[in-house]
Specification:
This protein has helices spanning about 35-55, 70-80, 85-100, 115-130, 160-165, 205-220, 235-250, 280-285, 290-295, 310-335, 350-360, 365-385, 390-410, 415-430, 445-465, 465-480, and strands at about 1-5, 10-15, 20-25, 60-65, 135, 140-145, 185-190, 205, 225-230, 255-260, 260-265, 265-270, 305, 480-485, 490-495. It is α/β, with parallel strands linked by helices. The structure holds adenosine monophosphate and zinc ion (ZN). Adenosine monophosphate binds near residues 29, 41, 42, 261 and 262.
Length: about 500
């Protein structure tokens, strides 16, 4: 598998520090309000990437923090007249609800900045001892960017350019800063703000220190992958490297993955611009599956424009997939086979085994042999696309191809083996993208009850020789997309 590394600006072969183990850290949201769908992009992208790594057989330690102390949290809590801690806790709960709504797996660990202050004080002390940080008169601790020779290596910026860019920017409260690019590691408390004791002053850490303390602690060492949105490359991730590497004397992360922005009208969706939709809003109109299909319909490094029209089109695509899968289930049901809706291939070896097993399947009808071959080809292309810097956009196209082939092939006389294999493969490919059709409303169950009752009403009508009524019901069912067939075993139906 190849992934694009922001550090080298190249696609590189993926090799882990420990064999078949992945240490992955994704910067999480600052929790002062409901998250918007811009924040959801890294969540969905990297959750899917984690699922794919797991499918490839990796044991993934996935760590993602909540920033629960920060200026924005304090300001909002002051506006509302509540404790910043309570505000953050409340929005962590809300964020977790949204994540569940989007079918995002809980991280292996979700550390909180406020619970890691001791580790941050420890790191800052070490940076001061080694001469990479200095203390101002008011107890503010600054990182000295001139001391770290590789500063700028992730964002591919050089220090001189950065300094001239920063020259005119003076931030109040940072009077003792030596160089414009230096950044705050610890800042003194202001009246009414939460604070922690430290050797320098009562105060709190700057934002850039939390991740490089939590990441190595919970990932147990340097990282294989550090990920987040592209706005984090500079300064956040650059500053994390500058703190970690002088202390540990080793690279912080092997691969840096950054998703591009989710835009609206070609502008970054953000809280401050006010051009956002919350995940909660969007999930009240569309399912989490539709949001995922939309979010993954563009490769993660390409800009993605949000609109409700595009969401409608993803919804139509999901319906097409679901109708196909439902058809497989109904056809099996008509053969008295109940499908375990959660059945999917756990890993890539299971897929290879399935292909070998079914290559010589004698139950396959002629048309199924050819169709199964094509399905396997498209499945392999799907994996190739994901192996190429996680190109979910092209991978989705392969799912649509498989749906087309199944739709062309499926009929009453299909073999149970072909139907089962088609279900298994589709459910697996959807599962890697975090799409779970069992969560796609319960209209299938409702439909089923309604359909069954209409069919028995039709049978009653036929018994009573009321053929006009029986025909009327058949037509009604057809309008609903249900075709019925009278067989010796009774009435059978399928979606058309
Ligand atoms: P924040 O809460 O602003 O720290 O953001 C949390 C995560 O969401 C970070 O990885 C950001 O890069 C990412 N993010 C925020 N806005 C967008 C957006 N419009 N498009 C893509 N990612 C975003
Ligand atoms: Zn971070």
């Amino acid at each position: 598998m190849k992934i694009h590394n922001t550090l080298t600006k190249r696609k590189e072969d993926f090799e882990t520090i420990e064999p078949m183990k992945v240490r992955m850290y994704v910067c999480g949201p600052t929790v002062y309000d409901f998250i918007h769908i811009g924040n959801a992009r890294p969540m969905i992208v990297f959750d899917s990437f984690r699922r794919y790594l797991t499918f490839l057989g990796y044991d993934v330690n996935y760590v993602s923090n909540f920033t629960d102390i920060d200026d924005k949290i304090i300001n909002r809590a002051n506006e509302l007249g509540i404790d910043p801690k309570d505000l953050a806790s409340q929005y962590i709960v809300e964020c977790k609800k949204d994540m569940e709504g989007m079918n995002i797996m809980p991280a292996t660990t979700h550390p909180l900045a406020t619970e890691e202050i001791d580790g941050m004080i420890d790191l800052i002390s070490k940076l001061i001892d080694k001469g990479f940080a200095y203390v101002g008169k008011d107890g503010t601790v600054y990182y000295d960017t001139t001391k770290f020779k590789e500063y700028g290596k992730l964002s591919h910026k050089n220090l001189d350019d950065l300094q001239s860019g920063f020259r005119d920017i003076k931030v109040t409260g940072e009077e003792d800063k030596k160089t414009s690019t230096d950044f705050v590691l610890w800042k003194p408390k202001k009246e009414g703000e939460p604070y922690w004791k430290s050797p320098w002053c009562d105060g709190r850490p700057g934002w850039h220190t939390e991740c490089c303390v939590m990441a190595p602690k919970y990932c147990k060492g340097a990282l294989d992958i550090h990920a987040g949105g592209e706005d984090l490359v500079f300064p956040h991730h650059e500053n994390e490297i500058a703190q970690y590497e002088p202390i540990y004397g080793a690279p912080y992360a092997r691969y840096w993955m950054h998703n591009a922005f989710l835009n609206i009208n070609n502008q970054k969706m953000s809280k401050s611009l006010g051009n956002f939709f919350t995940v909660r809003d969007v999930l009240s109109r569309f399912s989490g599956n539709v949001l995922r299909l939309f979010m993954l319909s563009t490769q993660y490094r390409a800009m993605l424009n949000f609109s409700f029209e595009l969401m409608e089109s993803s919804k139509a695509s999901l319906t097409r997939i679901k109708n196909c899968v439902d058809n497989i289930i109904f056809t099996l049901k008509n053969k008295n086979v109940t499908v375990n809706l959660n059945s999917r291939l756990d890993n890539i070896d299971d897929f290879d085994e399935l292909v070998v097993d079914l290559k010589t399947c004698e139950e396959f009808r002629d048309k199924e042999v050819e169709a199964f071959d094509k399905i396997c080809e498209h499945t392999k292309i799907y994996f190739d696309k994901l192996d190429d810097d996680f190109n979910t956009a092209d991978a989705e196209t392969e799912i649509y191809e498989i749906v087309r082939i199944v739709n062309q092939t499926i009929s009453e006389d299909c073999s149970i083996e072909f139907l089962n294999a088609s279900y298994m493969i589709l459910n697996t490919l959807l599962g890697i993208l975090g799409i779970d059709l069992t969560k796609e409303g319960s209209d299938t169950d409702l439909d089923e009850k309604l359909i069954e009752s209409m069919i028995s009403e039709r049978s009653e009508a036929k018994k009573a020789k009321d053929y006009a009524r029986a025909d009327e019901i058949r037509k009604k069912l057809l309008d609903m997309g249900i075709e019925i067939e009278d067989t010796r075993q009774g009435v059978k139906w399928k979606k058309v």
